[in-house]
Amino acid sequence: MGFVPRAFIVLAFVFLRGFEYNESRVAIVKKEQLTMRDGTRVIRAGLPGFAQGEPFLPGPTFANPYHLAGEPSSSPYSYGRYHNPTWTHFEQALSDLEGGTAIIFASGMAAVTAVFGSVLRPGNILVMPSDGYYTARVLAEGYFAALGVEIRMAPTAGNAQMEHLEGATLLWLETPSNPGLDVCDLAVLIAAAHQHGALVAVDNTTATVLGQQPLAFGADFSVSSDSKALTGHSDLLLGHVATREPGWAQRLHAFRSQQGAVPGPMEVWLAHRSLATLDMRLERQGKNALAIARLLESRPEVKRVRYPGLAQDPAHHLAVRQMKHYGPIVSFVLEGETEAEHFLQACTLILQATSFGGVHTTAERRARWGGDVIPDSFIRLGVGCEDTQDLLEDITQALATASVAKRNDP
Q1: In sequence order, what are the beta bridge partners of 201?
Q2: Which of 235, 250, 275 represents a domain boundary (last residue)?
Q3: Do residues 362 and 356 touch, judged by C-beta distance below 8 A?
């Protein structure tokens, strides 16, 4: 056969052997965890077991090659682009929480790209929300459309993607949508897509795995940017995809290894450490978000408020059926761009930044980026974990200050 084919076979065997090992570890849901409540599950998820004199969570493993004498299949780890013990622990944690095998990636967009790249081929059809995450839409309409993938867009509200499923290969959902916070009916859309022979992926970034369970609704893929609420400290980039189908897990793992979209061990270790507080953070963020949404509803300066947790929100009837936590985002619209800018400048606790989901409350006038069909005065507020009353007082004074500043403008 010659050197090159044999070398290829050996490397492929090492890769597949390493994947089988990691998959078997990741896919196991420990029996005792089935009876745990969420606050306990996130603290215990992925811990390798307790040993005398050892840390609860081992530190990050920094390695490119691993010691590998003799037969490669005798070792669970071979090379740093294929696997890492730190990845294994965190993937186990996410798998326990997702209810399927989780594969981690270097960023949320790397996770999105892995699903697109593993599923879509020239001539396939991708159905997406027209109001979903902007960069995912840019990737689809740019790179994948140029490869010959047909892209069909429809809004999240009203399950509008239902009308575009004929012949579809992949239905991509995002609920709640970012930044508009519309909600679609997961059970209805997933069932309809499967009837048409399409796979379904759900971007679950805003809700997180504790707030919503896409795989339990029958989705084929649950996708998340873990840079945001899942890890919640605004200090790393990470993403993951979870699936119940071993074949797709293997393809995603291969895509990650071959494309090199691998996370650093330090980032993964930080993410696993941060995961332990997810339930507490979501509880505080949800409490704060609901209080802020109610305040904004009462203010004359505010023209429109969206938050799925509000009983009168257009999406609440769906959100209450499929979400446990309503997420950390509140969106609202002020009179105009000037008022929005004055409001942001007047805030003392709320930081101007483009991400969300961290312990610090952030906000931005979202239209400054373009790409979303929203008013110029639309503000996306990423609610953090500060004291509720402090946030309400800061927003109240900022709204009042913005009104005065507007009246005093030349």
Answers
A1: 172, 221
A2: 275
A3: yes
pLDDT of 227 > 90? The answer is: yes
Pairing between strand 199-203 and 329-333? unpaired
Number of domains in the chain: 2
Cα distances (Å, whole numbers) of residue 341 to 29, 74, 376: 48, 61, 10
The residues near 69 (Cβ < 8 Å, ≥ 6 apart) are: none
Structural domain of 308: 278-408
97: closest CA among 175, 34, 49, 48? 34
* Cross-strand bridge partners of residue 333: 304, 378
How confident is the model at residue 32, as a pLDDT?
Answer: 53
What 3 state SS string does 69-91 have? CCCHHHCCCCECCCCCHHHHHHH
**Closest alpha carbon to 87 in 276, 266, 274:** 266
pLDDT surpassing 70 at residue 271? yes
pLDDT at 44: 96
CB neighbours of residue 221 within 10 Å: 29
Domain boundary among 247, 275, 303: 275
| Pairing of the two strands 125-129 and 150-154 | parallel
Q: Are residues 392 and 251 in the same domain?
A: no
Q: Are residues 48 and 144 in the same domain?
A: yes
- Which amino acid is present at 6? R
Q: Is the pLDDT of residue 17 over 50?
A: no
Of the candidates 172, 289, 313, 144, the residue with the CA atom closest to the CA atom of residue 229: 289
What pLDDT shows up at residue 26?
Answer: 37
Asked whether 20 and 230 are in contact (CB, 8 A), the reply is no
CATH number, domain containing residue 114: 3.40.640.10
Same domain, 267 and 399: no
Cβ-based burial of 3 (10 A; exposed 0-12, middle 13-18, buried ≥19): exposed
